[in-house]
Specification:
The chain has about 350 residues and is α/β, with parallel strands linked by helices. The protein is built from twelve helices and 14 strands. The longest helix is centred in the first third of the chain and has 18 residues, at about 15-30. Bound molecules: nicotinamide-adenine-dinucleotide.
């Protein structure tokens, strides 16, 4: 049956990079029997400008109906002074929570061709292949109560609430253990159990869950140590599982180990593998509209979509191999450019991947 894919290009470089992934998906549709129908919607600042809201009803409806969503990025300088309730990022958070996309998968992989792009020594990062599994719909980003209140002495106080239920911890734990079963069978659960009760419970639940996966080796690490270990010796990790806020920070740190945020895809999944796929980077307003952005993270996000939501592992592998072949040819956008390589634009990079396919 034809699967429905909703494209949400969003803001900044979003439209340019999503266009490259669409070229790739078009080829798969015509040459490799990928039976998908793509439609486009508005999200983020682009949606605010038209509808006065970053997640209009029609976009949410289309997102709920789709089998998978491919998103570019949201945000930009011109929307930064808006009230927090209608900022572009609210569009993303709204899709994540309405679709119950509780599991965020962010691989940090260093392509051997880019070993010199990292700011760390090649021997520390070469061959790096870790997966960060971040809980996405709970924790301190969503906990109630929250707000800014005025105390009796007239001073204002900001407050947020850090909560996780056993059910929330278990379901993200399962995702991490199952991912580890397909990889190197190691899970490191990151918490701050020495200070926060909520993560004391997190540690307890993860330890219990590990009994269901006897082949997987579970370890625990405090988040401050994890931040340090990721830079000191990142290859010690296979799968890292953690809560929303720690995952937000650690996954950005991990992505920079590889040298370019322009290379890293991500997936946000619900309990039935329906998902939203997007590059790990933002809307890069500084280079938007100039045909400079690296589209590979978006193309690799489309590969993750093929793998997790569209049941086409074969095509996911084809796309990943095409990306690797293009790097072998020495083609580089500005963010991953180095001496002796061929500098290409966003659309040329997309064309090169298409040519490989
Ligand atoms: P950013 O990721 O957009 O940019 C950081 C730096 O990386 C910039 O110098 C940018 O030019 C570069 N960069 C990012 N993606 C690139 C690519 N594909 N190719 C080449 N270079 C690339 O982060 P930021 O500057 O902190 O945020 C800019 C805007 O993006 C903000 O409005 C922010 O809120 C938003 N943002 C959105 C998302 C999302 O949509 N998921 C995530 C993070 C930030």
């Amino acid at each position: 049956m034809t699967k429905q894919v909703l494209l949400l290009p969003g803001d900044g470089i979003g439209p340019e990079i999503v266009a490259q992934a669409v070229k790739v998906l078009d080829v798969l549709n015509t040459k490799y029997n990928l039976d998908i129908n793509m439609t486009e919607g508005l999200v983020g600042g682009a949606a605010y400008d038209v509808h006065g809201h970053p997640l209009p009803d029609e976009t949410l409806k289309a997102a709920l109906a789709a089998d998978a969503i491919l998103l570019g990025a949201v945000g930009g300088y011109q929307w930064e002074s808006l009230d927090i309730s209608v900022r572009p990022e609210k569009g993303l958070l709204g899709i994540r929570s309405n679709l119950k996309l509780f599991a965020n998968l962010r691989p940090a992989m260093l392509y051997p061709q880019l070993a010199n792009a990292s700011t760390l020594k090649p021997e520390v990062v070469s061959g790096l292949d870790i997966l960060i599994v971040r809980e996405l719909t709970g924790g301190i980003y969503f906990g109630q109560p929250r707000g800014i209140r005025t105390l009796e002495n007239g001073e204002r106080q900001g407050y947020n609430t850090y909560v996780y239920s056993e059910t929330e911890i278990k379901r993200i734990g399962h995702v991490a253990f199952q991912a580890a079963m397909k990889r190197n069978k190691k899970v490191c659960s990151v918490d701050k159990a020495n200070v926060l009760e909520v993560t004391e419970l997190w540690r307890e639940v993860m330890t219990d869950l590990a009994k269901e996966y006897p082949e997987v080796q579970l370890s625990h690490m405090y988040v401050d140590n994890a931040a340090m270990q990721l830079v000191r010796n990142p290859k010690q990790f296979d799968v890292i599982v953690t809560g929303n806020m720690f995952g937000d920070i650690l996954s950005d740190e991990a992505s920079m180990l590889t040298g370019s945020i322009g290379m890293l895809p991500s997936a946000s999944l619900d309990a039935h593998n329906k998902g939203m796929y997007e590059p790990s980077h933002g809307s890069a307003p500084d280079i938007a509209g100039q045909n400079l952005a690296n589209p590979l993270a978006t193309i690799l996000s489309a590969a993750m979509m093929l793998r997790y939501s569209l049941g086409r592992e074969d095509l996911a592998v084809k796309v990943e191999q095409a990306v690797s072949a293009v790097l072998d040819q020495g083609l580089r956008t500005g963010d991953i450019f180095s001496e002796g390589m061929t500098r290409v634009s966003t659309s040329q990079m997309g064309d090169a991947v298409v040519a490989q396919l």
